[in-house]
Amino acid sequence: MPELPEVEALALDLGGRLQGRAVTKVHLAQFSALKTFDPPLTALEGVLVDGVTRHGKFLDIDLSGTHLVMHLARAGWVRWRDEVPATPPKPSPRSTIAARIVLDDETGLDVTEAGTRKSLAMYVVRDPLDVPGIASLGPDPLTDDFTRERLGEILQAEGRKQLKGVLRHQGTIAGIGNAYSDEILHAARMSPYKPASSLDDDELTVLYDALRETLGAAVDRSRGLAASELKGEKKTHLAVHGRTGEACPVCGDVVREVSFADSSLQYCPTCQTGGKPLADRRMSKLLK
């Protein structure tokens, strides 16, 4: 799933490509992806792109005051086309194309989603805050006003909730998903199950620094990359997420996993849990 660093870089890449160009046509291939009806999709046609920005994990293309907002969900992406095919994409359960945006110089982009779970969402709105997911976002963790003290207030308000869940809840902190919450906690050497309100002052400082440095470094590495390079860049620099069974790059212990119904987390026992593996009830049941 694209998270804050990838969406930030995607916004920068697309902003450079789209700025000042006019949209001539928007083809909707997966009708379930469009979540709004007013303004209509045709309101995007014939107008100039003023810029591309990010709100948490939402991508926002500003077309002369009307906004095309996209949440790429787990398997969505945006693919640039130097030349758009003459034939519009057709609705098909086998196609990965959800929408195609055609520009006035015959370049454009495809909004795609792999897999069978269709969670990608597109909104045409006059104000980004008209998108419920944006209106309910927590603070952005890379802004200047996201201070150590602000993080401390958030964690105290979340009480005994587990750090992993607090970090990735978009209404609490915007932009951090499953992958970077694993990476932040590994960098901070903290258990994903540690209660949010249990951190002392030193631990709060460690977590805050790990959060800012992990996300900031990912944004810096991604800045200037084309959209086609961003997924590979992210995967290359992950320490534990998606690396179950591999050696931890810090201590050499085996990276472990805890599985849930529709997701999983990865961690290093030596670095994060005092050498003790976390209980994985799902895997335990499979082994019985």
Automatic annotation (TrEMBL):
GO biological process: base-excision repair
Domain Formamidopyrimidine-DNA glycosylase catalytic residues, every copy: 2-120
Keyword line: DNA damage, DNA repair, DNA-binding, Glycosidase, Hydrolase, Lyase, Metal-binding, Multifunctional enzyme, Zinc, Zinc-finger
UniProt-listed PROSITE patterns: FPG_CAT, ZF_FPG_2
Residue stretches making up the FPG-type domain: 239-273
Transmembrane segments: none
Catalytic activity reported: Hydrolysis of DNA containing ring-opened 7-methylguanine residues, releasing 2,6-diamino-4-hydroxy-5-(N-methyl)formamidopyrimidine
Annotated GO MF terms: 8-oxo-7,8-dihydroguanine DNA N-glycosylase activity; class I DNA-(apurinic or apyrimidinic site) endonuclease activity; damaged DNA binding; zinc ion binding
A Pfam family annotated for this UniProt entry: Fapy_DNA_glyco
Cofactors that this protein relies on: Zn(2+)
EC number: 3.2.2.23, 4.2.99.18
Record InterPro entries: FPG_cat, FPG_N, H2TH_FPG, Ribosomal_uS13-like_H2TH, Znf_DNA_glyclase/AP_lyase, Znf_FPG/IleRS
Recorded family membership: Belongs to the FPG family.
Entry protein name: Formamidopyrimidine-DNA glycosylase
